Fold this protein.
Amino acid sequence: HKHDGHDRETNPNAKTIATLQEMSDYYTRIQDQWRPIAYRRAIATLRKQDRKIMTAEEASQLPFVGSRLAQKIEEIVWTNHLRRLDNTKLDDSDKLLEKFLGIYGVGFAQASKWINQGYRTFEDLLAHAQLTDNQRIGIEHYEDFNTRIPRAEVGEHGDIVNSTAHSIDPQLQVVIMGSYRRGAETCGDIDFMITKPGASVYELRNILLDELIPSLFAQDFLQVGLAVTSRMDGTKWHGASRLPGHEGAQWRRVDFLLVPTEEMGAALIYFTGNDIFNRSIRLLASKKGMRLNQHGLWKDVIRGRNRERMTQGTLLEGGSEKRIFELLGVPYRPPEHRIC
Ligand code: DCP
Ligand code: MG
Ligand code: MN
């Protein structure tokens, strides 16, 4: 009678077949065009064998089994394992982690949780995961938010925010910060600093939330608000904008940071970055017994046993960027040179 080659339990090559199938699934996932076909054919051949294929030489005599596949079959039989598969699992989940981390607002904990829950694609997530509104927007606009913005377009977004701000209150000042201020040719997002001489953060917050943002929505410039954070690093509004009148124009990530005049120097340093430069200049301050944050440069900061801060200290300077460099005893560095 005919041997039942399809019985996974009793097939003498069951382990080999299962391992090759995993390799094949990997190639399917990474959208390799040919290898899944080659694997499928080799697996079909193995299923038809009624003895265990032990060596590469034996394997390569079978139809549809090339020499590389034959080597793999031998490795699986003799080591009960395929090393190449470990690597694919590694690059696979690394790449997936990186991809999920690229979603706006998604951190390491959320990304790994999704991977552990078995989600592998954006389609999976959109169809089956419990997503917040922002996560859904982050996925739907993944390409947009991960595409760098040409400098000239950042300038156009700036013009719109500027003229809108001026029509609300001629004293409002809008400065584009981040990579744009450092002179970058392309920017990851658009960072706006908003100030007004003499205005407190509360006053600025009211202008932003009650007037500027609604007006920018009304012009079909802002598309969505994503988050308002009000923390140590000041009040920041996150959202997305698009140049009006360009159907299909990409959504761009925008940040608004509200800064009272007396903190402008420190905020300029913080929001110009880059982040590595910030870390190094803060370290320098701390080595000199001072402390630099986005609100100012401080002295006489009292620290506890584990160097944890006990007091805020005394403000040395907040308003002038140049003066902060002076007090730190380092030559002023223009924004274009603040790339570490
Ligand atoms: N910043 C920081 N530390 C962080 C994030 C930001 O010090 N973890 C500061 C320095 C950044 C500035 O805020 O330059 C703006 O943050 P962005 O994330 O927008 O970074 P960039 O504008 O520098 O670069 P990109 O072009 O990618 O937006
Ligand atoms: Mg930026
Ligand atoms: Mn930003």
Summary: Strands lie at 149-150, 173-176, 186-187, 190-195, 222-231, 234-241, 252-258, 290-293, 296-299, 314-317. The two ends are 74 Å apart (CA to CA). The chain is about 50% helix and 15% strand.
